[in-house]
């Protein structure tokens, strides 16, 4: 059975813990400009470039992370994000730099000159959840192999 979509790509859904709902609203709503959907005192839905992410309150989370080496960088695991167009990626990178974001991996180009060359950046939300936003000069490089 193939996992390739038989129809146009659909939005994904991801639910994850945060230590504080107000911090999550400030980070996802204000900084990343994700429109807010439904909410409760213990969770908030956001639209992350058309995908549904849901922050769930976990007052006991500790924010520990694992790091794995990728192309000479230490990448936080787990992480999530969106593959953007290059202009949207650059606009987000510029906005985050202007807001003095503390990057895990600052905006850079990975795999330069190789299959899968990509612009990428990693940063964490206030709860320690790692996010990666990336872009390709051409979307056909998303799953490119050497």
Summarize this, please?
The protein is of the alpha+beta class.
Q: Can you walk through the features of this model?
A:
With 146 residues, the chain is α+β, with helices and mostly antiparallel strands. Helix content is 16%, strand content 42%. It has a single domain (13-141), classed as 2,3-Dihydroxybiphenyl 1,2-Dioxygenase, domain 1 (Roll), CATH 3.10.180.10. It has helices at residues 21-31, 86-98, and strands at residues 13-18, 36-40, 43-48, 51-57, 66-70, 73-77, 79-84, 103-110, 118-124, 130-135. The strands form 3 sheets. The chain has a 4-stranded mixed β-sheet with strand order 1-4-3-2, covered by helices on one side. The longest helix is centred in the middle third of the chain and has 13 residues, at 86-98. It is globular and about 45 Å long. 16% of the residues are buried. The mean pLDDT is 92.
């Amino acid at each position: 059975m193939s996992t390739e979509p038989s129809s146009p790509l659909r939005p994904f859904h991801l639910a994850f813990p945060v230590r504080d709902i107000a911090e999550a609203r400030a980070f996802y709503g204000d900084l990343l400009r994700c429109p807010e959907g439904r909410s409760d005192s213990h969770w908030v839905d956001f639209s992350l470039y058309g995908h549904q992410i849901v922050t769930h309150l976990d007052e006991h989370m500790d924010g520990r992370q694992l790091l794995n080496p990728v192309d000479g960088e230490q990448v936080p695991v787990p992480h999530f994000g969106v593959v953007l167009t290059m202009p949207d990626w650059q606009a987000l990178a510029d906005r985050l730099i202007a807001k003095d974001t503390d990057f895990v991996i600052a905006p850079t180009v990975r795999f330069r000159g190789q299959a899968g060359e990509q612009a990428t950046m990693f940063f964490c939300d206030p709860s320690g959840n790692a996010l990666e936003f990336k872009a390709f000069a051409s979307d056909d490089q998303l799953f490119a192999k050497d």
